[in-house]
Amino acid sequence: MRVAKVLRTVTITLALFLLAGITYQQLGFLIDARRNPEPGRLIDAGGHRLKINCTGTGSPTVILESGLGDLLDEWKAVQPQLSTYTRVCSYDRAGYGESDPGPFPRTSLQIARELRALLQNAGERPPYVLVGHSFGGYNIRVFHGQYANEVVGLVLVDSTQEDQYQLLPFAWKQMSARQLSRWQSQAKWMPLEIMFGIARLRLRKQLGSNGYLFLRPSYLKARASELEEIQTSAEQARAAGTFGNKPLIVLTGVKQDDDLKSSLTAEDFARFQHTWVETLQPRLAQLSTSGKQVVLPNVGHDIPSEDPTAVVDAVREVFEKVQ
Fold it and tell me: Order of strands across the sheet with 248-253?
């Protein structure tokens, strides 16, 4: 009897703790969403809704495509400046931010098709100037390959290049493999932590104003799938071909991130920088006969946040050439 009573007490206590955790997570999410709502509106993109934020007026419309794991908030220092003279749209890919989950796997081809449907259903019309940061570069290249007649210019912001998997140091490949394993594990197990409020409690000091949007299982799964399929996306970008003579500016960060630098030996980091700046990024510039590389010596990979003016200036230069 005593053992049964103890077990019953433990079970009830555990259930109360779990219920409290669920309540903590749900209330916290609702409060954060009310205090810091994502701008824009939800629009159908082929059976699921994506969040799109369009500002300004004019043509061509600038489309901002975020990097791997980044929300539309990535462009908060860029979009207001661009929207002073033309129409600008940023958005959250499926599973990201307030967007609904989308079909898997999350490849650049799938993403490009969803973006096209999103723009059409949102009433946004070509021509477009496409801007892609990091992994977003693959996505806009594939978009161009599918809908070339709708695109008049492009800006690649420290974008990935398909030959990097062969040319970058082996230590970088090992680091990328570890990141994939970590993101896959988070996509599998963290939803439980999120449900019971453990993740919110554990990460509360690290989360910014929009941090509640990262504590969503759909985000973790979409992010992991994009990284799992990144070499498929790379080959889709390669197959998308070149841009003819359309205006193209390639922004290249030299410093790179502290996490990358600390993960590689000095020799491997030097090799990474040289290959990235002198080989991979110039190959992107060669996608157009009017392509140009702009090297930013004091900026790392996150150019939209570290040097938004560089992005704004590049877009304006492309914009003026296509006017």
Answer: 41-44, 49-55, 88-91, 61-65, 128-133, 151-157, 248-253, 291-296
Average pLDDT, the chain: 90
DSSP string, 178-234: HHHHHHHHHHHHHHHHHHTTHHHHHTTTT--TTGGGTS-HHHHHHHHHHHHTHHHHH
Identify whether 208 is part of a domain: yes
**Chain position carrying tokens 């939803």:** 191
Q: Is residue 27 part of a domain?
A: no
For residue 215, how many other CB atoms are within 10 A of its CB? 21
pLDDT, tens only, 221-247: 999 999 999 999 999 999 999 999 999
Q: Tell whether 2 is covered by a domain.
A: no
Alpha-carbon gap, residue 247 to 258, rounded angstroms: 32
Q: How far is CA 247 from the centre of its chain?
A: 23
* Residue 257, domain extent: 41-322
37 against 149, higher pLDDT:
149
Instruction: Establish if 12 belongs to a structural domain.
Output: no
DSSP 8-state symbol, 238:
H
Longest dimension (CA), the chain: 84
Instruction: Give how many domains the chain has, as a whole number.
Output: 1
Is pTM beyond 0.90 here? Answer: yes
Dump pLDDT digits (tens) for 53-82: 999 999 999 999 999 999 999 999 999 999
CATH number for 268: 3.40.50.1820
